[in-house]
Write a structure and sequence with these properties.
alpha/beta, eight-stranded parallel sheet, six-stranded parallel sheet, 8% strand
Length: 805
């Protein structure tokens, strides 16, 4: 080769390169460089071939040699930046791109690569700016339009992102990734139907689009369309069998099919192979949340926190886990990152508001409540799609029935829309034999040391076995005394903790259960997708969850004439089984033998003790102001409250000081073992209930220990339950209709102890079997209700409102 024919050799090498013959092309470029070492086009081409071969370090060395000859060449400098970008040497790439952008502000390719670098650094605002610079010079640079839309998507600016994707589609672009990216926006907004259509179009354009196949599988998985979901997952795995996202989703399939330990093992294996990949961490964390193993969630996800590109779901799961473990600052830090996210923002906001309540942040109450109400109205208008909303927290808010009902209807509608396809596929038949014994089942995640089980545990002992066969279906495995007690007292104790919803429903149905009673409703840990599959012909809601479900699969809800009035009955989608005394029950409680004294709890021995050991999240500024007025009107008194952390005590004391009460008149106590806890209640002279969400278990504990309870009768079931307890015990004088009457009674009772002393004596006698303390009598009434609703069902009669004397 001579210098004269270099041009011919170069053209031949380029032709080889265009045909994908990298080896032949590289050999020719090497021959050229032997003859002319400073032949710039060949230097560039050889560097690109090394890059195409994945030899990035060699490509960088080659490029640096070329730059030593041509230090100002723009193409070599740009290629050097791209190579550093390719091996994630982002700081080095950033130095190169910064210099190039300053020198050549009108070259789109420089700004384009700079934007990719900013994106990898998670500097989204600067990435956005660089893409806009590209489009300023070259408005039809389609890749920049697409990538800018992706930046908007990452920034939760979904409307702007969707608008750009639509711009590309309207311009005639039939690109699979554009459709897949638009579908991702729809999916994140909760518009699963629109997302499905877009993903299908993306696959139609390119059936090798793994992102579209994966996300479509995920949509079908969340909609319980297992067969369709698995089909697209298998298609994706055929293309990329080592893709960690796909393998993580495959493990979730094993979990949902009941192979729970196998699924967890699959994910743990992936974690060993891919320790820095978020996806297996995320999928395993999702399983741990369902199992209520919040410490495991944090241990699993916390090492990822240094990764600036964590997914929104990881922040969400960490926030929920921190909240459950009362690590509130860390929870707020994670949940605050989700503002504007259509799926997680609403629950994140409501959780943050609840954290402030738990911590006694009274000064934030009005602002946060206003934000929650605004967000809930947006949810009802469809702004959050199928957002994940903690409906179990609604009772803590001072909402009217109309708002609560609208929220629950939307929540139930979303649940049923997702579950109905699999319900139709299962199409259960039922055991309608009019046998001697009715098969009843109780479904709960709380067959353990938990308030729900403390209330209902004696039901399993007192059910008439000549008339009823009793099943307990546990959604959480445990090994404490309460779990073993219920296991022993049931005719059949069935652990469903390992089952998918479908498998659990099949088990219940195959056992021939005729009436299924859900004990926790929408509360945390309760899997309402199981009763939504309608495994039994009649389904009821009892205790644990106190409002309507607004779900078509719940036929009856238990209530009484105090908790559900003629005015509020219309807000229930279920038929109401109305007991003439309180529908709640109180199983026997045995206090410890501990010698409790005021001094041990820091309470002066000569003061009147008002007490409220309800959870602090039930305490708002209104009731604090009322309690402050009570303390000011009775100077020889203190208020004894429950503390969950140091913030609770500090903030609530501050609120009392602001209302003119010395902080030493508000005393706090912490958590104690159950039997010690109920024993210390005897130090209280008058228990003051909270108005929006009454103390349920706590008030029953106080009454059982002989402590009079003063309550306010509200409008919702949760705000009228204590009035129901007191009515069943014929203690209506302790029920107030408003805060003024509540304040006056609290002061009057404290200044003249006659009524309180008489009530304490009466409550001691009542434990022998009056009202809510007559558990066996309560069981007989519930059984009468079961027999009535089963007889109606056998006759083909629809559920109706029933009164049980």
């Amino acid at each position: 080769m001579s210098k004269a024919n270099i041009s011919t050799y170069f053209d031949t090498a380029q032709a080889f390169l265009n045909e994908g013959k990298l080896k032949e092309a590289k050999n020719l470029f090497n021959e050229i460089l032997k003859v002319k070492p400073n032949h710039l086009p060949s230097l560039l081409m050889k560097g690109r071939i090394l890059s195409m071969e994945g030899k990035y370090k060699m490509a960088i060395e080659h490029n640096n040699q070329a730059l030593s000859i041509f230090p100002l060449d723009i193409n070599l400098r740009l290629q050097s930046g791209k190579l550093h970008l390719r091996i994630n040497e982002l700081k080095k790439a950033r130095v190169i791109f910064d210099s190039l952008e300053q020198e050549f502000p009108n070259i789109p390719q420089i700004h384009f690569q700079s934007a990719i670098c900013y994106r990898k650094l998670n500097r989204l605002a600067e990435a956005e700016s660089s893409y806009k610079k590209v489009l300023h010079v070259q408005p039809k640079h389609l890749q920049s339009v697409n990538n800018l839309a992706n930046i908007y998507q990452l920034s939760h600016r979904y409307e702007e992102a969707e608008s750009l994707y639509d711009t590309l589609i309207r311009s005639g672009i039939r690109d699979s990734m554009v459709y897949a990216n638009k579908a991702s926006v729809q999916f994140k907004k909760g518009n699963e139907y629109e997302a499905e259509e877009c993903f299908l179009e993306a696959i139609k354009l390119n059936n090798q689009n793994v992102l579209a196949l994966y996300n479509l599988s995920l949509i079908y998985y969340s909609s319980h369309k297992q067969e369709q979901s698995y089909k697209f997952l298998e298609m994706a795995l055929t293309i990329e069998p080592k893709n960690v996202k796909l393998l993580s989703l495959k493990a979730l399939f094993s979990y949902s099919n009941g192979e729970r330990e196998s699924a967890k093992q699959q994910l743990k294996t992936l974690l060993k192979e891919y320790p820095n990949e978020e996806e297996p961490h995320l999928k395993l964390a999702r399983i741990y949340v369902e199992e209520l193993r919040f410490e495991s969630v944090i241990q699993l996800l916390q090492p990822l926190k240094g990764n600036e590109l964590l997914s929104d779901e990881t922040h969400f799961l960490l926030g929920i886990a921190y909240d459950q473990l009362q690590l509130f600052s860390a929870a707020i830090d994670q949940l605050s990152k989700l503002a504007g996210h259509p799926k997680f923002a609403l629950r994140a906001l409501m959780t943050i508001q609840m954290i402030y309540s738990k911590c006694g942040e009274v000064d934030k109450y009005d602002e946060m409540m206003s934000r929650v109400i605004k967000a809930l109205n947006q949810f009802l208008e469809g702004s959050f799609g199928e957002a994940d909303i903690p409906v179990y927290n609604l009772a803590y808010y001072p909402f009217d029935h109309n708002l609560i009902t609208k929220i629950l209807k939307k929540h139930a509608s979303n649940l049923e829309r997702r579950i109905n396809p699999i319900k139709e596929e299962l199409n259960f038949s039922y055991n309608l034999i009019d046998s001697k014994r009715i098969k009843i089942g109780y479904l709960s995640p709380n067959f353990k040391v938990h308030p729900d089980s403390q209330l209902i545990k004696d039901f399993f002992k007192y059910h008439d076995r000549d008339r009823f066969e009793v099943y307990a279906f546990s959604l959480q495995k445990n090994d404490d005394d309460m779990y073993r007690f219920i296991e022993k007292e049931s005719d059949h104790f069935v652990d469903l903790s390992y089952c998918s919803a479908t498998e659990a429903a099949r088990n219940i149905n195959q056992l021939g259960v005729q009436i299924l009673t859900c004990l926790s409703g929408y509360n945390l840990g309760m899997r309402m997708d199981i009763p939504a599959l309608k495994p039994t012909p009649v389904q009821t809601m009892f205790m644990g969850y106190n409002e309507s479900t607004q779900a078509s699969f719940i036929d009856y809800v238990f209530g009484d004439c105090v908790t559900i009035t003629e005015e509020t009955r219309s807000f229930f989608s279920e038929s109401i089984i109305e007991l003439q005394t309180s529908y709640f029950s109180n199983s026997q409680m045995i206090p410890s033998n501990k010698n409790v004294t005021k001094e041990a709890y820091g309470i002066p021995h000569d003061v009147f003790v008002y007490g409220c050991l309800n959870h602090p999240r039930k305490i708002g500024p209104q009731i604090i102001h009322t309690w402050a007025e009570i303390l000011k009107k009775h100077s020889e008194s203190i208020l004894w409250l429950y503390r969950i952390n140091e913030f609770t005590e500090k903030n609530i004391k501050k609120a009392f000081v602001n209302f003119g009460v010395a902080e030493n008149r508000v005393i706090f106590c912490g958590k104690e073992p159950f039997r010690d806890h109920i024993k210390r209640l005897t130090l209280i002279d008058l228990f003051l209930d909270t108005p929006v969400y009454n103390g349920h278990t706590t008030c029953l504990e106080a009454l059982w220990m002989g402590i009079p309870v003063l309550t306010i009768k509200g409008n919702t079931v949760s705000s009228r339950l204590c009035a129901s307890f007191l009515t069943s015990l014929e203690l209506e004088q302790f029920i107030s209709d408003d805060l003024k009457a509540y304040t006056n009674k609290a002061v009057e009772f404290a200044k003249d102890l006659t009524v309180l002393n008489q009530t304490k004596e009466y409550l001691e006698k009542a434990k022998g079997g009056i009202g809510i303390f007559n558990v066996e009598g309560q069981v007989r009434k519930i059984e009468a209700a079961y027999e009535t609703i089963w007889e109606r069902h056998l006759k083909g009669l629809e559920p109706v409102h029933l009164k049980i004397p």
